[in-house]
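protien #1 (seq + structre)
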Amino acid sequence: MLGDAGYHVLFASNGAAGVKVLQSRAHIDLLITDVGFRDGIWNVIFTTC
């Protein structure tokens, strides 16, 4: 949906992949995540990065 609107979208299929995206130092203006990841990584990781 956001990609169709012209935004560049970075996608992570699980928590570990999401952490790698954040560690890549990619420019991120907006972060949308779910409540918890199936692989045990909690959203608290994202709020502290």
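ok now protien #2
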Amino acid sequence: MNWESRLMMPNGLKAQYQKAGNTRYYKLVPQPSHHTIVDKVE
């Protein structure tokens, strides 16, 4: 499996994809996310 066949989600899991012909597609649902990258920065 190469890097082009994977899509990582923020929770660390790999997103599932479906194939139609010779094309891979992902069904993604946008959701707000709140991550602390650096403490005390807003």
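The first strand starts at residue 18 and ends at 20.
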